[in-house]
Amino acid sequence: MKFSEKQIQQEADRLFKKLKKVEWSKVDCEIIAPLTLEINHLKKKKNVIILAHSYMTPDIMYGVADVIGDSYGLSMTAHKTKAKTILFCSVHFMAETAKILNPTKTVLVPTVAGCSLAESITPKDVRDLRKKYPNAAVVCYVNTTAAVKAECDACCTSSNALRIVEGMRQKRIIFLPDEFMAKNLQPLTKKKIIGWNGRCIVHEEFKPKIIDEVRKDYPGVKILAHLECMPSVIEKVDMASGTEGMVRYLEKSKSKKFMMVTECGLSDRMKVEHPEKKIVGSCAICPYMKEVMMKDVLQALKFPRKDQIVDLPEGVLKKAKKALNKMVRITEGKRFK
After folding, report:
1. Taking the complete model, does pTM exceed 0.85, yes or no?
2. Which one is the CATH code of 5-113+290-304: 1.10.10.10, 1.10.357.10, 3.40.50.10800, 3.20.20.140?
3. Fewest beta carbons less than 10 Å away: which of 73, 140, 173, 204?
4. Which sequence spans correspond to the domains of the chain?
5. How far apart, in whole angstroms, are the C-alpha atoms of residue 309 and residue 47?
6. Cis ω on the peptide bond leading into residue 231 (within 30° of 0)?
7. Over 60: is that where the pLDDT of 235 sits?
8. Is the distance from CB of 123 to CB of 100 less than 8 angstroms?
9. pLDDT value at position 337?
10. Considering only CA atoms, which of 41, 43, 144, 25 is closest in space to residue 87?
11. Which is the CATH superfamily of the domain at 203-285?
12. Strand partners for 154
């Protein structure tokens, strides 16, 4: 697809207004402008909505995405959209969640990217845990495959995990797969939490020493951490939640300096959307999320391969949806249709 020089320059200008905040040059924007133009043209022509997780690269978030957010929020957006096709720029389990909520729609992923948490547990592991703890409820973090969700009683997100645990009638809760999140939840409830050994390879990199160093170097800084971090980190921060909880805290806070103890994509997003705030300290890159590239988005839009089309067995779809419905009933008093 060919575009005029004027169209390319106008698109480069649009991109540069956003991406210059994360140190992209005008030349960088001119290079990707033909790609973003073609993608944005095709998505309208084919009635496709593009969703991007906050851990995507800035060019995807601000070049072609219609909505940016966390996995659950984006899946809710997918559930409400009138678009014929959903293209989810994320790791694969997130697109699976969108498919569970939209079984009749086409759901695409640009790249079949994994996740250390999702890959840490299998459906058989869940069945074995049920046998070992027959009187316990099984709550799974949304960072799991559809097949694992199908074996669980309820799903949860990092923001509603405690509410889901408290909302289960059982006194013992098998919480999987995140080891650190389970440990972070235990002091907050009287229920007995039985954890698993899954870890996010991004969040396990953060150590308490980093928090101390940032506080020393940036007096008055507010430090926000993801609940996937180890308890010794969570104990030292000002606020712990999921990505969207961290975003809301930053937006409402009067503070000017923040450290985002999570994947680098969220720091980039905050630099673009809140240039009045200063993001300090270090972040960590998720190699899985960063597998998704602009060229893959275009390819999936044009001629999706079989592996880019999210397809789930009917039995898994129905059982996994029950676990998601349990979460929504507890948190919002309703269910997915």
Report:
1. yes
2. 3.40.50.10800
3. 204
4. 5-113+290-304, 118-199+312-332, 203-285
5. 16
6. no
7. yes
8. no
9. 52
10. 43
11. NadA-like (3.40.50.10800)
12. 139
Task: Render pLDDT for 63-97 as a digit per residue (tens, 0 to 9).
Answer: 999 999 988 788 889 889 999 999 999 999 999 99
Amino acid at residue number 5:
E
Does the 118-199+312-332 domain belong in CATH 3.40.50.10800? Answer: yes
pLDDT over 70 (residue 133): yes
Total residue count of the chain as it appears in this document: 337
> Tens of pLDDT along 84-131?
999 999 999 999 999 999 999 999 999 999 999 999 999 999 999 999
What six digits make up the tokens of 35? 């790609």
Of 176, 167, 168, the C-alpha closest to 145 is 176
DSSP 277-290: SEE-S--B--TTGG
Which has the closest alpha carbon to 56: 236, 251, 269?
A: 269
